[in-house]
Design goal:
The protein has helices at residues 3-6, 8-20, 31-36, 104-120, 125-130, 196-202, 220-227, 229-245, 311-315, 336-347, 380-391, 411-422, 433-446, 475-483, 513-531, and strands at 26-27, 39-47, 50-58, 68-71, 88-89, 149-152, 163-170, 178-185, 191-194, 207-214, 251-262, 265-278, 283-284, 298-304, 306-308, 328-332, 352-356, 396-400, 425-428, 450-455, 461-467, 544-548, 561-564. With 577 residues, it is α/β, with parallel strands linked by helices. The protein starts with a helix and ends in a 13-residue tail after the last strand. One of its GO terms (biological process) is cyclic threonylcarbamoyladenosine biosynthetic process.
Length: 577
């Protein structure tokens, strides 16, 4: 049933309230809209003796979601809080402030006057006091292909240069409309700026050339012109557009303009169109203006969604970890625990990762590994390198396919030792006693901070050891405390036996990725806290954390984590880290 059939009194009251405000409500719902579950009512709103026809649309999910008000931009376009393309009036910031018991008529009564007063005086004190503190970027109004993106990184655009060429690389070989801007040139093809990080990630993919031009937005009509792909191409360079339509190669046209990105703050945006001459469906060169001869070629002009991918826009979402952009981490062991740690650190913006592991990814481990089936057969470090490079291009990854203790002579062993020397912090996620003994000895000699993370059988529990304070205990100290049972062992399925999946030449244990991830994430929090300053992400104040996901009866544990702090063990001789 439709919402007005479930709550007939609600719709009746809405109409009555609209009428009480002398807005002369009229039902204008089309058959298609009604079948979809919508109701549309047109009202006449008067401001300063001028009447404005406004359509009020009640969505199928009303009243759980607010309705929408539209003032046709063909009649008038307000300078603020009015979408120049769709005509939507901004009554609320998203769904913020809307409650199911609110009537749409009351929302309109509270906000329509504000919108029109602010339209007449957008810089007034009244506007500052009554506006939501957010900008209105034009790019948010413009239409684009649903599966498209045009990533613009930190590219410097000199004010004295108004046009030129550029190159953009596809994000993957299967993409048609997803690009990253990698190089900008002037009109004489002299390089202005490049993005080495995006070139590192996508430079091997198809590169498409384009032409850019700075334009000034002086009216709402200029914004509408940006929304029309053909008009935009002509605006940028009409003769080049006509030439490219007659050619065979795809091309990009971009208008570079200033827009409000925060309230009262303006910055550069790119509106980019992908031009693809074709022999199939499309528009003829000159369509919409003067007809061209019948032999003229067809073309497709597809608008791409603008994404401001500059560092400031990434880090504003994660301000406490901005310092990670200058830090490096070495992860020893890139299995179920280490792979998740690596990906999460890259996601948080770590500058560089050294990944050390000599194993490959088995297809059957996809049920609990951080990466899926498409990476099976690859070495763990190269698989993670590939994934991180494609998804987090601002993290450099040095994959080192090496297993400590391996008697084979190659350069990987030297690279691994060098990584231990260079990284700001070392993560022992190998879950091998021999590796931990070796790393403890090595890192004590280097006085290097480290974090150790392990799981217990069945992933009933796990532990994170924070060895980042030179004045605190070392790995050998905590081992001694654990042997003495001063530091308890996390819960584990000690009754379970080892398993050997078919084709695997080593024993393993049961374990679940959705449980081990919780342990890995505690390790990530510990690592990040140790790499940031006091004003950044908070550092932990303990030396050992036991994570108990299940109790000894194999039911969910009530106490997920317990933390412990220790002095250096009096019997440990490894204190000069």
């Amino acid at each position: 049933m439709n919402w007005w059939e479930i709550w007939p009194e609600r719709y009746k009251t809405e109409i009555e309230k609209l009428a009480e405000n002398d807005w002369n409500p009229k039902e204008v719902t089309t058959k298609e809209q009604e079948e979809y579950g919508m109701r549309v009512v047109q009202i006449t709103y008067t401001h300063d003796d001028v009447q404005y026809p406004i359509k009020v649309c009640f969505p199928p999910e009303y009243p759980f979601f607010k309705g929408y008000a539209y003032l046709s931009p063909d009649n008038i376009t307000l300078p603020r809080h009015h979408n120049p393309i769709s005509g939507e009036l901004c009554l609320l910031a998203g769904q913020t402030g809307w409650e199911a018991q609110t009537y749409m008529a009351d929302l309109l009564f509270d906000h329509l006057k504000k919108i029109f007063v602010i339209a007449n005086a957008p810089s007034s004190t009244y506007a500052v006091e009554n506006e939501e503190p957010q900008g209105e970027p034009y790019s948010g109004y413009l239409s684009s292909h649903p599966d498209s993106v045009f990533l613009v990184p930190d590219i410097s655009m000199p004010s004295e240069i108004s046009c030129g060429n550029f190159f953009a690389n596809r994000l993957s070989s299967s993409d048609k409309f997803r690009f990253a801007l990698t190089k900008v040139l002037d009109i004489a093809n002299h390089a202005i700026d490049t993005s080495p990080e995006l070139l590192r990630s996508f430079g091997s993919n198809v590169s498409v050339k384009g032409y850019w031009k700075k334009i000034d937005i002086t009216s709402i009509d200029d914004v509408r012109q940006l929304d029309n792909p053909q008009e935009l191409c002509r605006l940028v360079n009409e003769s080049l557009f006509n030439s490219k339509c007659q050619g065979t190669d795809e091309f990009l046209f971009a208008a570079v303009f200033e827009q409000e990105v925060q309230q009262g703050v303006y910055d550069t945006a790119w509106r980019t169109v992908h031009l693809n001459p074709s022999t199939g469906k499309g528009k003829r060169v000159g369509q919409g203006r003067k007809k061209t001869p019948a032999r003229s070629k067809l073309y497709e002009a597809t608008p791409l969604k603008f994404e401001d991918f500059r560092a400031s826009n990434r880090l504003v979402r994660i301000p406490e970890v901005s310092e990670l952009g200058t830090k490096s981490v070495c992860i020893v062991g890139c299995g179920m625990l280490g792979s998740t740690i690596a990906i999460k650190l890259a996601q948080a913006g770590i500058n560089k990762l050294y990944l050390i592991d000599g194993d490959t990814i088995d297809a059957t481990t996809s049920v609990r590994y951080a990466l899926g089936l498409q990476y099976s057969g690859l070495s763990k470090v190269h698989a993670l390198h590939s994934y991180i490079q494609e998804n987090y291009p601002f993290t450099a990854v040095e994959p080192i396919c090496h297993a400590f203790g391996n008697p084979i002579i190659n350069e990987h062993g030297q690279l691994a030792m060098q990584a231990l020397d260079e990284a700001d912090i070392i993560v022992d996620a190998a879950a091998e006693q021999g590796v931990s003994y070796f790393l403890s000895h090595r890192l004590n000699a280097l006085n290097a901070p480290s974090v150790v993370v392990t799981t217990r059988p069945g992933t009933w529990g796990g532990e994170v050891w924070n060895l980042t304070n030179p004045e605190g205990p070392c790995w050998s100290c905590l081992q001694r405390y654990q042997h003495e049972k001063t530091l308890p062992m996390p819960n584990g399925d000690d009754s379970g036996s080892s398993i050997q999946p078919g084709g695997c030449n080593a024993l393993t244990t049961e374990g679940y990725g959705f449980e081990s991830d919780l342990i890995s994430l505690h390790a990530v929090r510990t690592i990040v806290g140790s790499l940031t300053s006091e004003t950044g992400f908070p550092a932990v104040d303990w030396h050992a954390m036991n994570i108990n996901l299940r109790n000894d009866k194999n039911t969910h544990s009530e106490s997920l984590s317990l933390t412990f702090s220790f002095d250096k063990h009096p019997d440990c001789s490894c204190h000069s880290r």
